[in-house]
């Protein structure tokens, strides 16, 4: 699927392609009030982070994308600049190498956005890890890494953003349906995302005093590299889709839309909310 905003019918499937996979992009959604705002997106070198950066830039937002792999991030930023060359009013995209576990690095990242563009309005805590191990085999190192990246990274990013945002700023964290549903072999991941969900609520309460909104997105099964392990196993995919009331995977663009909503003025009275985008799977 491409990063274009071409209008198609959402929610349709093509039987000749992967079963349960959505074909085409969402109907185009514009939020003109986002134009000229400045955003930081972590984990933007690939996957959903790259799509968030692309969607924002195409709507006139200046974006600082960050990834632990600096070379990957620069290639992604360069690619987005080329793609957006023909998009009227597209925002600028720059890349930075950042380990979100490093609080000082996140502070420097926020300052980079301020120095480059003169303001900071949006922060998306997208960077994360997706470890797998049975409970009895979770190592100290794996648990520490998972909590450090998935939870501490969110906190440090929010701290860095809040110190530089003006009232009206918005922070969005990446939670997961795994925060409320158990997945065998994913105890470290599930517990970290449960922490992100509650941390989002805590941040919303405390940063609300500064006029900063904090929300989270909780995706379910989405067609990304992170779910390739189940998509490549027909039996596992069929079982997974049985637990999704809409009986299909979500498309990345179906995560982008809610993200843009939470960042927009349409959601200016929404804070402390964890928005499930999971095809209803949290209820099964």
Automatic annotation (TrEMBL):
Keywords recorded for this protein, A-Z: Oxidoreductase
Positions of region (Disordered): 1-22
Superkingdom of origin organism: Bacteria
Residues forming coiled coils: none
Compositionally biased intervals (Low complexity): 1-14
UniProt KW Phosphoprotein keyword: no
Gene3D superfamilies xrefs: NAD(P)-binding Rossmann-like Domain
InterPro entries according to UniProt: KR_dom (IPR057326), NAD(P)-bd_dom_sf (IPR036291), Sc_DH/Rdtase_CS (IPR020904), SDR_fam (IPR002347)
Domain Ketoreductase span(s) in chain numbering: 37-220
Keyword Oxidoreductase annotated: yes
Similarity comment: Belongs to the short-chain dehydrogenases/reductases (SDR) family.
UniProt protein name: SDR family oxidoreductase
Naturally occurring in which organism (per UniProt): Nocardioides imazamoxiresistens
Organismal lineage: Bacteria, Bacillati, Actinomycetota, Actinomycetes, Propionibacteriales
